[in-house]
């Protein structure tokens, strides 16, 4: 992401100096068109068809604790129309203006221990805020990495790589169709963003010319208005930072990987299992909670979280599974997340029976 922003800053400097023609802006008419563009390049979000150099107004961002997607690298960008910004919210995703675009490219390298070496883009997803609400679109990259085309019905792609622990993996990667996008990106039946919440953006990012807190940077760049200074804003713990404590890290991980469905407004609201970071009621967090429907997904176990006993907890059983009828999350992964699973198991083991 630093590479992309550096290119953007370089282009801006050339334009200001008059040494080169100013780069073309994002095509807002295509962004807001009723019919999705057939190619990612049609939006003008990037200066090149290979989507390596972002256009002016497209800013990289990252999340303190992201969703696990089979160890894929993710390159995220935000665009808000000139003169418009997202309104700050202390709870839930920021309130983005019409014409906003959230860009997320999924990529794999042959060896994910060195993810920048030989990296290949797999798909780029767009969330576009239109007059009628948010629209989710997936663009799949060709073998030559020169073009990404719209796949509304989704796709299956075979991907092989070495994971961060050094283990060889071969997966059937799922590009979701538009209906599957609604499964996770749903709040009271409406399609919404998941990641860009103030507390998940409240972290530093290297922007090339400076390192700055993202909330402050978004205000500086015109993407965000309102809200407190970063030091007074809520913040999600980093799941992989041992210094932040076991419970905050495990709760952050469950929030990122489970709470998009398991919250009072999500697709799994009828389960009564709410894993969003704001939830405080032990039973709704799964502690000694029996499942609403004790089918095959329970593995014969009695409660979601059996304090002190991860091996007797349905949550751990489902996170470890790759059976489509058992695994959680249901979409977005083919592999169990070994590191995340260990974190949640340690957290459950730490709870007093």
List keywords for this structure.
globular, two-stranded parallel sheet, single chain, 6-stranded antiparallel sheet, 353 residues
Structure report:
The chain is of the alpha+beta class and 353 residues long. It has eight helices and 14 strands. The strands form five sheets. The chain has a six-stranded antiparallel beta sheet, sandwiched between helices. A two-stranded parallel ribbon has the order 3-14. Strands 8-9 form a two-stranded antiparallel ribbon. A hairpin with a 4-residue loop joins strand 12 (204-206) and strand 13 (211-213). Helix 6 (246-257) crosses helix 8. The longest helix has 16 residues, at 2-17.
What are the SSEs and their pairings?
Layout: H1 2-17, H2 28-31, E1 58-61, E2 73-79, E3 86-87, E4 101-108, E5 120-130, E6 133-141, E7 148-150, E8 155-162, E9 168-175, H3 178-184, E10 186-187, E11 190-191, H4 198-201, E12 204-206, E13 211-213, H5 214-221, E14 224-225, H6 246-257, H7 314-320, H8 338-350
Parallel strand pairs: 3-14
Antiparallel strand pairs: 1-2, 2-4, 4-5, 5-6, 6-7, 8-9, 10-11, 12-13
Helix pairs in contact: 6-8
Q: Distance N terminus to C terminus?
A: 44 Å
Query: Strand order across the biggest sheet?
Result: 1-2-4-5-6-7
Instruction: Show unreliable segments.
Output: 1-19
How much is the radius of gyration in Å?
Answer: 21 Å
* Binned strand content: 15-25%
Residues in helix, %: 10-25%
Helix vs. strand class: alpha+beta
Please state the overall shape, judged from the principal axes of the Cα atoms: globular
- Oligomeric grouping of the chains: single chain
Nearest-integer average pLDDT: 91
Q: What's the helix-strand series?
A: HHEEEEEEEEEHEEHEEHEHHH
What is the count of helical runs? 8
Number of DSSP strand runs: 14
Largest sheet: 6 strands, antiparallel
